[in-house]
Amino acid sequence: MEAPLFFTFPPYTIPYQYVLVNSRHFSKGYAYVKKHYRFIRKVIIDSGVEIFRNKGVFDYPEGHIQRMIRNYDKVRQFVKETYLVCPDYPDDYYPRSLWISDKSPILRER
What we know:
It is a single chain. This protein has one domain. 22% of the residues lie in helices and 12% in strands. Strands 1-2-3 form a 3-stranded parallel sheet, with helices on one face. The mean pLDDT is 87. It is of the alpha/beta class and 110 residues long.
């Protein structure tokens, strides 16, 4: 059985093998990757779902997926094993805030 891999965004000065980069704060993550790429084995670029903490936000900004793909291409120049997290719509910040009713999992009209 393989050991689990733990991804995180470590302090800038500490090299780490499994790096999590947030799309919403990409420049910090990209600077880290450029500095430590010789040590990094895998990178996950997260969608930045925390934008939904703001009750007025119901969707990702326009062009978000295209921006994630551009960020992926930049990181892949340094770390070949790079992955993207699919943008999702969380229910944990504001439960059922995207639902029409308790019975229907269909997104409400905006």
